[in-house]
From TrEMBL:
Protein name: Fatty acid hydroxylase domain-containing protein
Keyword Transmembrane: yes
Membrane-spanning residues: 117-137, 144-163, 207-230, 346-364
Residues of the Fatty acid hydroxylase domain: 150-290
Species name: Ilex paraguariensis (yerba mate)
Record-level GO cellular component terms: membrane
Transmembrane recorded as keyword: yes
Family to which the UniProt record says this protein belongs: Belongs to the sterol desaturase family.
Keyword annotations of the record: Membrane, Transmembrane, Transmembrane helix
Chief location of this protein within or outside the cell: membrane
Length: 405
């Protein structure tokens, strides 16, 4: 029997959830709760409703829901951007914490990583109806930024630490939290790969400081955007499997290591699980005596190795880009598309000019670079890309440049 709140309510709707949204829009119901169920398909219709409502002098609700959709889009962009960076091996291979690749099983398992965006869009819409004060927030409030930082440190951090520790208990871990830990290699998308109950708790941790700040009269639109987007950025940081924080900064400011975690710090939690439970501040692990003793030394070791030459591969497969469209199938662009190399999606069409410019830059400046790797029987295999596209191999004047690569 499936544990309560372990599955997402729209998990089995498939295409039907799209039809529900279309029906709600066509009938013009006041039902933003349903309209937020799949934000990606609703930008056009929702913008239409906002423009129509402005003509009718009734823009309050639609403007708030527009903010919800914009925020969801920006949050998704942050996760995609961080995932792209963590998979750019030519930039990150010497900074990787776990030296293994992401397999298709993990990609399939994390396919619906963005369910929590839908959930939080619903919660934000409910909050708007329950607290009308959210409809009249100013654009900026300096006091609001101070208040939300205080509430985050004193409420969200200890609440998450306690809840996270509980999720590692026998029953809760087996039925809920084990899904999050089932990904062998942490990735930014892994941060969203959890059960409904996990994300209900995380949503409370995220929105308590926001609502608290707004209810005391210090809230602002910019505060909500900054807090939510920074929250997501730090979540991505902890799951990116790439160490980007230099160890020297902690040697200069020792107390800083208790105020902000590192990718190495959170990676240890995924590997050993009995320590490092904090949200973003290791201070609470130190207070709760759950701080992994290897955290700082491992961080220093990985940070130092980032400037060294990595392991020489035992086998290299030399490849080139076939055409402009295929260049968008590399793992660091869209992971879901990279796992289906012969698939073309409509949203890839606007990216074609960008890929074309990248092709020109590669032709002019790029060197051969590493794009993927795998380990087989203890041997390191890498794929290197010659920065040339298929048509360039038929240009007589390009032959010398290709051979030089």
């Amino acid at each position: 029997m499936v544990a309560p709140l372990s599955a997402w309510p729209w998990e089995n709707l498939g295409a039907f959830k799209v039809q529900i949204q279309k029906l709600c829009f066509l009938l013009d119901f006041d039902c933003q709760l349903f309209l937020c169920l799949e934000q990606y398909l609703l930008y056009g219709p929702f913008l239409g409703k906002v423009l129509f409502s402005r003509l009718q002098d009734n823009s309050m609700t639609e403007t708030w829901c527009l903010h919800v959709l914009i925020l969801c889009a920006l949050r998704g962009f942050i996760y995609q951007l961080c995932t792209s960076f963590s998979n750019m091996l030519f930039l990150t291979r010497n900074r990787r914490i776990l030296q293994q690749g992401v397999d298709f099983k993990q990609i399939d398992q994390e396919w619906d990583w963005d369910n929590f965006l839908i959930l939080q869009a619903l919660i934000a819409t409910l909050a708007f109806y329950m607290f009308p004060i959210l409809a009249n927030l100013p654009v900026w409030s300096t006091r609001g930024f101070i208040a939300i930082i205080i509430l985050h440190v004193l409420v969200s951090e200890p609440l998450y630490y306690w809840a996270h520790k509980c999720f590692h208990g026998s029953y809760l871990f087996t039925h809920y939290h084990s899904l999050h830990h089932s990904s062998p290699v942490p990735q930014p998308f892994t941060a969203g790969n959890s059960t409904l109950l996990d994300h209900v708790v995380l949503a409370a941790v995220t929105w308590i400081p926001i609502l608290g700040t707004c209810l005391i009269g210090c809230g602002s639109i910019s505060m909500i955007y900054c807090y939510v987007l920074l929250f997501d950025l730090l979540r991505c940081l902890g799951h990116c499997n790439v160490e980007i924080i230099p160890h020297q900064i902690f040697e200069i400011f020792p107390l800083l290591r208790y105020l902000i975690y590192t990718p190495t710090y959170h990676s240890l939690h995924h590997r050993e699980m009995g320590s490092n439970y904090c949200l973003f501040m290791p201070l609470y692990d130190a207070l709760g005596n759950t701080l992994n003793s290897k955290s700082w030394e491992l961080h220093r070791k990985i940070s130092l190795s980032s400037g060294e030459i990595g392991r020489v591969p035992d086998f290299v497969f030399l490849a080139h880009v076939v055409d402009i469209t295929s260049s968008m199938h590399v793992p660091f662009v869209f992971r879901s598309i990279a796992s289906m190399p012969f698939t073309t999606r409509l949203f890839m069409v606007p990216l074609w000019p960008i890929a074309f410019v990248v092709m020109l830059v590669m032709w002019a400046k790029a060197k051969t670079f590493s794009i993927s790797f795998y380990n087989l029987r203890g041997r390191l295999h890498q794929t290197w890309i010659v920065p040339r596209h298929g048509f360039q191999y038929f240009l007589p004047f390009a032959a010398e440049g290709i051979n030089n690569k």
